[in-house]
Amino acid sequence: MLNNSSPSEPGLAPARENAVINAQCYRMDYEVLHGEASALARFGSVQLGPLTICQHHGYGTHRSSRGPQHIREDGVEDFIVCLPLHGDMRLQQNGCETRLAPGQFALMTTARPYCGSIGCGDDADPFSCFQVRVSNQELRERVPDIDAQCIRPMPIQRGPRKATKNWRHAK
C-alpha cells in the first residue's frame, strides 16, 4: 500500500508535507504554483526490492526542485524514471528542458540539480504521475552511457528490454 501525505496549499508546501516527500523520495523542495487552496495533492511510495515507486496526483500545477544543498544533505545519486499518467510534465536538468505527455517517460539523475513541474491546463483537471527511483549502480551496469540519456523523452513500448534498447540507440 502507498503511504499518503496531506493536502497541499498554494505556495511553498508546509514543512510537514515537505518532510513527508523528503522521507518517501529524496531531498527536494515542493510547491503549488497555482490551484485551489482546498485542492488535494497526494503522495505515496512503495519499496519493491531495489526500486522505490512514488505516486503523485492532485490538481493545479505543482513543482519540485532539487538543488546543490539537497544533494549535499542526502548524498543520493540515483536515477528517477518520470512517467506522467495524466497531465503535462516539464523537466529541466543540465541546461536541457523537455516536456512529457502521457505515453512518454524520461530519466533524471538525483546527483545533479533539477526542476520539474506537472499539471493540467485547468485547475479542475487532475494530474497524476509515477516516479521510479532506480539505484545508480543497478542502471549503470545495464546502460553504461546512461547520463547521456537524461531528460530525453522516450515513448513507452511494450515488451522486454524496450526501454534500455531505446536508451542504447537514442542519439
Report on the structure:
The chain is of the alpha+beta class. Helix content is 19%, strand content 43%. The protein contains four helices and twelve strands. The strands form two sheets. A six-stranded antiparallel sheet has the order 1-2-5-10-7-8. It has a six-stranded antiparallel sheet with strand order 3-4-11-6-9-12, with helices on both faces. A hairpin with a 2-residue loop joins strand 3 and strand 4. The protein starts with 10 loop residues before the first strand and ends with a helix.
Q: Sum up the overall morphology in one term.
A: globular
Arithmetic mean pLDDT: 80
Q: Order of strands side by side in the largest beta sheet? A: 1-2-5-10-7-8
Specify the helix fraction band.
Answer: 10-25%
Strand fraction equals 35-45%
Q: End-to-end distance, in Å?
A: 38 Å
- In terms of per-residue confidence, which ranges show pLDDT below 50 for 5 or more consecutive residues? 1-14
Coarse structural class: alpha+beta
The number of helices is: 4
Alpha-carbon Rg, integer: 15 Å
Largest sheet descriptor: 6 strands, antiparallel
Number of strands: 12
Q: What's the helix-strand series? A: EHEEEEHEEEEEEHEH
What's this, in brief?
By secondary structure, this protein is an alpha+beta fold. 19% of the residues lie in helices and 43% in strands.
Features:
171 residues, alpha+beta, 6-stranded antiparallel sheet, 4 helices, disordered N terminus
